[in-house]
Each structure stands twice: as C-alpha cells, then as structure tokens.
C-alpha cells in the first residue's frame, strides 16, 4: 500500500504537470518585474524626501518626553515643547550637515541634507544589484551609484531630480511633491523609506507632533547612548494605480521609528519598513535603517548634499520613464 | 572569482530547463498561474546574481524556488490551498459517473499538506532526490527532512484511505439507485 501511494503520487505528478510549459519570455518578464519593484522603491524614495524630518521632530519630542513618561499629560506637553525648541537650536543654530548611512533591503545607500539641499544615493553593493532586459547586470560588484534622488543646481536654481545611473537617464521631480509633515499618507509612507528629509525641519516636526503621527515609546541603547525612541503610527495607504500595477498589490503598510540623542537632541537613527499586500503577487517587503552623523558645514561636506548629473545623461519627462 | 556570464547564456539556460522548472513550480503551488508567479519571482532573484553567480544556476534557482515555496509563499499558499479546496468542494463533477483517478486525487491531497512537507515530497518523488540531497537543497538538517517526508506521506495515506472509502460509498449508492 505504501509503495502504491508513492508510485501513484509520482504518476499523479506526471499527469498533473503534463503539457505544462514555461511561458515565452520568462527572463524578460522576470527582468521587468525586477525593474518594476525597483521603480516602486524609487517612488517611495522620492516620497520620502522631507518626511524623515518629521521623524526627527518626533524624536525631539521623545527626548523631552523621557522624564515625563510616568508623569501627568500636562507635564509631557511642556517637556515636548521644550525639546522642540532645543531641537530647533540644535539644527538651525549649528547649521550642521546631516549624513545618513542606510542599510536594508534597499541596498547600501547614503543620504545627505543641508538646509534645502539633499541627496539620497543608492549604491550597487557587492553583488549584481539590478538586471538589464537581457538578463545581465548593469553593474558588477563594487559600490557604484545606482540611483539618486534629491536636489541639483540646474541653471543656478535648486531643482528636484531623479537620476538612474544604470541607464544614464534623469528627470526633474514635480514641484510640491515633498510632504510638509508625516501627518499625510504620503509623508507617513515616506518615513518608512531610506532617504532623509531636507528643509524646514522645525516646521515639519511641529506639524507631525501636532497631528499625533508619532508617540514616545521608550528608550533604546544605540552605540552606548540611551536614546529616546519615537514610534510613528502605522499607516496603510492605497497604492497609486501605476505602482499597484507594478507590484500587483493594492495596499502598502508602513511603520517607522526614530531615535534621538537626549544630550544633543539630535536624531541618531531612523528605521522604517513597508509591506505591500492585497493583490495576487507576493508581498514586497522593504526595510531600512539610517544611522545619522552630524558634520560641520565644510565646503566638502556641503558639496555632498547636491546631485551632479553626469555629462551625457539623457533627460526624460518623469521618473516613470526611467 | 565571480563568473562573468554572458547575457545570452541565461536565455539558453531557460530554453533548456524552464519547462521542467515550471512543472516543479506548478506542483509546489497547485496551479499554473501561481507556479508562473513563483518561478518568475525565483528568476528575478537569479537575475540579481546572474553575472556574479558561482556554481550551477539551476541549483540556485531550484533552491530559491523551494525556499520561496516553504517560506515567502507560505501564507499565500495556505490561502491558495483553501481556495482550491473550497472550489473542489463546491463544484459538482460534470459527469457524476466519471470517477477521479486516485493519482489525480493524490496531487490535490498534496496541496492540503503544509508547505514544508509538500516541498519535501515534491523533491523526493518528482525530483527523485535522496533525503541527504533534499537536506542540501533546502538547507535543513537531514532529520528534519526525514520527519517532514514521513509526516507528509502518513497524511497522504490517511487521505487516500478516506478517498477510497468515499469512492466505495459512492459506488454502493449508485448501485442502489440503479
């Protein structure tokens, strides 16, 4: 009987798969799928730009909220306001350049911000990080630029740009696409991405705190420092039609957490995650951890906060064409 | 040292092996559509490493297929199996006298097993690998493979006996009606 079942199972498998053939163009389809996933990644990265600032603000609130966690609500509100003012002085008064090193499924990345300037750059990492339509890799090994999102000086004007190095293309980002706080769906979604916000952090933080998009959730040691942990409210967003088609999902749920140094009131880490769901495709799950350093505003550091579009790159009308 | 694979090599590899891999994916997921999704996802991962991949690309792709089937696709697999079972229960046979062959029934029963047991049985009876080879493909201890295979087969036997009993009952019922 046992042998019978095993043989019947073997026969059944043959019958079940008889005539099954792989669809034509499988490699191209997989390659397209990979590019689409990367495109969604890029879209999230674009949306992220100013949102991370909200996290910083929230962190600031968290730093102040530490002692008040067991106290009355009024005390916490006062402390939060105090911390916000400290953060404003820390960020605006010192004019520091923020450098974030990002790790996670996004690939090794760097994020730089200084005032309204910002540059988020994803590198290829040590393996073949992306595929061309013929199945090959566009880069091999090493840390070569893969994509960049941020600001560039074009005609003397600070302009939002999106650059894809693997196909030598770039496009201008539409104005007004950067959210002013993490209160909006776009802003909250962006918080879960890898890039770092750019301008007007205090306003961004104020708005985010005012709408209750984050709460103080305790402390966490980072590099020997007991930081204050601020957790953003998870947000579920319906994907725009284009992205929904690309990942064959309907929704994305994002979470983010911010850590602030209670001595300097500067954020030291932000972590985020996003997961798509609700469609026929497997969920696309992305996580990122950005460790932040605050650097003096030297010419070299400031230069890092701008994207330089390499000569010969072709301009296309929008990031969707990349 | 990483291999510098030519792009055309991938097309040649798929031309030779894609159908067989597609069949495996269909067995792991229970349908052509889901199998195609699984194979495409595994292939997407292969593409990431194509130029730098060392060793046999088929082994890499096969391992990815099975790992996805037992891990990333776990939740979706459960849902898919439920839907398949629901469909099987709610759709009456077109011809009530056309009995389903036990061979076909066994494959449907295979979809009722947990994904890890199913993967092991597909590797054992479709790929015809030994338990040691299965352990190497899945990266599991050999004891885990043995246990999953044993439980999976036991469950299949139980289901097969149930199927036999139902068929006997149906035959008797048809005889009484006649």
Q: Care to describe what's here?
A:
The complex is a heterodimer of chains A (322) and B (178). In chain A, strands 1, 2, 3, 4, 5, 6, 7, 8, 9, 10, 11, 12 and 13 form a 13-stranded mixed beta sheet that branches. The termini of chain A are far apart. The model of chain A is unreliable at 43-79 and 131-135 (pLDDT under 50). With 322 residues, chain A is an alpha+beta fold. Chain A has one domain. In chain A, helix 3 packs across helix 4 and helix 4 (73-93) packs antiparallel against helix 6 (201-210). Chain A is globular. Chain A has helices at 2-17, 26-48, 51-68, 73-93, 185-191, 201-210, 241-247, 299-303; strands spanning 97-104, 109-114, 117-123, 145-154, 157-164, 169-172, 214-222, 225-232, 235-238, 251-260, 267-277, 285-295, 314-315. Chain A has 8 helices and 13 strands. The longest helix of chain A has 23 residues, at 26-48. Chain B has 178 residues and is mostly helical. Chain B has 2 domains: 1-91, no CATH class; 94-178, Winged helix-like DNA-binding domain superfamily/Winged helix DNA-binding domain (Arc Repressor Mutant, subunit A, Orthogonal Bundle). Chain B has 8 helices and no strands. Chain B is elongated, with a radius of gyration of 19 Å. The N and C termini of chain B lie far apart (74 Å). Chains A and B meet through helix 1 and helix 2 of A and helix 1, helix 2, helix 5, helix 6 and helix 8 of B.
**Total domain count of chain B:** 2
- Number of folding domains of chain A? 1
Strand content of chain A: 25-35%
Work out the strand percent of chain B. Answer: under 5%
Report Rg of chain B: 19 Å
Q: Detail the poorly predicted runs of chain B.
A: 72-99
- Outline the biggest β-sheet of chain A: 13 strands, mixed
The chain pair with the largest interface is: A-B, 40 and 52 residues
Please sum up the structure shown.
With 322 residues, chain A is of the alpha+beta class.
């Amino acid at each position: 009987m046992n042998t019978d079942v095993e043989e019947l199972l073997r026969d059944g498998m043959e019958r079940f798969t008889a005539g099954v053939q792989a669809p034509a163009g499988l490699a191209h389809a997989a390659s397209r799928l990979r590019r689409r996933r990367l495109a969604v990644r890029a879209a999230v990265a674009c949306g992220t730009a100013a949102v991370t600032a909200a996290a910083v603000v929230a962190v600031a609130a968290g730093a102040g909220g530490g002692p008040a966690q067991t106290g009355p609500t009024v005390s916490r509100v006062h402390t939060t306001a105090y911390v916000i003012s400290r953060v404003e002085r820390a960020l605006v008064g010192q004019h520091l350049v923020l450098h974030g090193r990002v790790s996670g499924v996004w690939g090794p990345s760097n994020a730089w911000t200084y005032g309204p300037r910002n540059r988020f750059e994803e590198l290829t990492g040590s393996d073949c990080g992306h595929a061309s339509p013929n199945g090959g890799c566009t880069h091999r090994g090493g840390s070569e630029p893969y994509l960049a999102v941020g600001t560039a000086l074009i005609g003397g004007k600070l302009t939002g740009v999106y650059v894809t190095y693997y196909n030598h293309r770039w496009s201008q980002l539409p104005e007004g696409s950067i959210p002013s706080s993490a209160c909006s769906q776009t802003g909250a979604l962006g918080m879960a991405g890898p890039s770092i916000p750019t301008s007007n952090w205090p306003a961004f933080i104020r708005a985010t705190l005012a709408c209750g998009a984050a709460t103080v959730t305790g402390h966490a040691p980072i590099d020997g420092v007991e930081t204050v942990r601020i957790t953003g409210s998870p947000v579920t967003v319906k994907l725009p039609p284009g992205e929904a088609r690309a990942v064959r999902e309907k929704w994305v749920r994002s979470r983010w957490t911010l850590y602030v140094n209670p001595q300097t009131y500067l954020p030291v880490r932000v972590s985020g995650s996003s997961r798509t769901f609700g469609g026929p495709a497997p969920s696309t799950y992305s996580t990122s951890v950005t460790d932040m350093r605050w650097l003096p505003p030297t010419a070299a550091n400031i230069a890092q906060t701008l994207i330089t579009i390499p000569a010969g790159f072709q301009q296309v009308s929008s990031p969707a064409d990349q | 040292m990483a291999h510098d694979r030519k792009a055309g090599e991938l097309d040649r590899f798929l031309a030779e092996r894609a159908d067989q891999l597609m069949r495996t994916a269909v067995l792991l997921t229970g349908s052509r559509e889901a199998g195609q999704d699984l194979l495409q996802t595994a292939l997407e991962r292969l593409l990431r490493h194509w130029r730098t991949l060392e060793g046999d690309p088929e082994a890499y792709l096969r391992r990815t297929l099975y790992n996805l089937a037992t891990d990333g696709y776990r939740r979706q697999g459960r849902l898919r199996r439920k839907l398949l079972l629901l469909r099987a229960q709610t759709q009456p046979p077109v011809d009530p006298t056309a009995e389903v062959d036990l061979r076909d029934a066994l494959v449907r029963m295979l979809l009722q097993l947990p994904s890890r047991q199913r993967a092991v049985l597909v590797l054992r009876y479709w790929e015809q690998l030994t338990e040691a080879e299965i352990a190497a493909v899945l990266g599991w201890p050999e004891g885990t493979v043995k246990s999953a295979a044993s439980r999976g087969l036991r469950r299949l036997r139980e289901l097969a006996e149930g199927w036999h009993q139902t068929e006997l009952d149906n035959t008797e019922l048809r005889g009484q009606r006649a």
